[in-house]
């Protein structure tokens, strides 16, 4: 059965996400990705040019933020933590990107683009000052939580229930939304 070029690209991307997820950026090879996709490795290079470019294409993510303006203002931190837990738990690709960002400049760039391009506007809608700083601080908590829970799999964090994480990390995120920038945090 012949595939269209769009179908072939989709099959390659699906195989790449699976391989990057299982082996990380360094461990995933173009040959292994091509084998998973059932195509010749030259086709991967034809469509994507390099492993780095393939990874960047495979790392397109929409964090699908809910409309937080509809959330009780005192619960925004918990709502955001809950949302991120949903995203990390239901999108293996985000875990791949996080794993890869620990060793790969292309992945670092994608992670930065995602958080700057998607988180900052959400924060800016809810606060009138220092949205960039607040979004950066929120990202430190969210990415740290994800790294510890889903990549490093630290026992205390992995063993915590979702509710426990939301109730413990949510107030920290809330503080980043509410504390005056002049206050010592």
Number of strands: 0
Structural class: mainly alpha
The number of distinct structural domains comes to 2
**Global geometry:** elongated
Sheet with the most strands? none
> Remind me, CATH topology of the largest domain?
Tetracycline Repressor, domain 2
The low-confidence parts are none
What would you note in describing this structure?
It is a single chain. The protein is mainly alpha-helical and 185 residues long. The protein has ten helices and no strands. The protein has two domains: 5-58, Arc Repressor Mutant, subunit A, CATH 1.10.10; 68-178, Tetracycline Repressor, domain 2 (Orthogonal Bundle). Helix 1 crosses helix 2 (30-37), helix 6 (92-101) packs across helix 7 (105-126) and helix 8 (131-151) packs antiparallel against helix 10 (162-178). It is elongated and about 60 Å long. The mean pLDDT is 89.
């Amino acid at each position: 059965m012949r595939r269209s070029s769009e179908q072939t690209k989709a099959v390659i991307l699906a195989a790449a996400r699976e391989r990057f997820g299982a082996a990380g950026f360094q461990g995933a090879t173009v040959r292994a990705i091509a084998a998973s996709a059932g195509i010749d490795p030259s086709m991967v290079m034809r469509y994507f040019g390099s492993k780095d470019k393939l990874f960047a294409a495979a790392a397109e993510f929409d964090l699908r933020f809910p409309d937080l303006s509809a959330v009780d203002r005192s619960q925004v931190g918990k709502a955001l933590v809950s949302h991120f837990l949903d995203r990390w738990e239901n999108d293996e690709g985000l875990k791949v990107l996080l794993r890869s960002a620990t060793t790969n400049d292309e992945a670092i760039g994608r992670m930065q683009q995602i958080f700057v391009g998607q988180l900052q506007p959400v924060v800016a809608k809810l606060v009138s000052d220092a949205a960039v700083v607040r979004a950066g601080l929120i990202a430190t908590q969210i990415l740290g939580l994800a790294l510890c829970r889903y990549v490093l799999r630290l026992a205390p964090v992995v063993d915590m229930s979702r509710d426990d994480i939301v109730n413990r990390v949510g107030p920290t995120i809330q503080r980043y939304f509410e504390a005056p920038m002049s206050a010592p945090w």
